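Researcher: Next sequence.
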Amino acid sequence: MNQELKTKLTAIFFWTLLLATCVLAVQTGLSKRVRFPRGGTTATLKNSVVRGTADRYTLGARSGQKLTARITSLEDNAIFLIYQPGGEILEGTGEGPNEMNWSGELPHSGDYVIEVSGTRGNATYTLKVTVR
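Model: Next structure:
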């Protein structure tokens, strides 16, 4: 194998490894179970999400309960999606104004995941979640 081919293969390997590392880094973020205060139905969660990552909050709820989620951020650049048990996006979340506020009756019992991300740059946010 000549030197030019070795150099090209080494470069391809390096860039492939770098790209794979970046893709894995994009997927990481905070992952936390929501704990409501004793006797309470509302939790307030504060954090910062780094550009290209998403924070995930898991909470258990029963079918028929009402979930209300509201997110505020310093630069109005934090949004959320809510995933139902089984992984499908909860209908109505992630659509227009429902990226920052959502309220509705839950269709299934189990763990719901609220995924917070930024629309541009890093986002410092407060997520308020109520389940009744």
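Model: The longest strand covers residues 110-118. The helical segments are 3-27.
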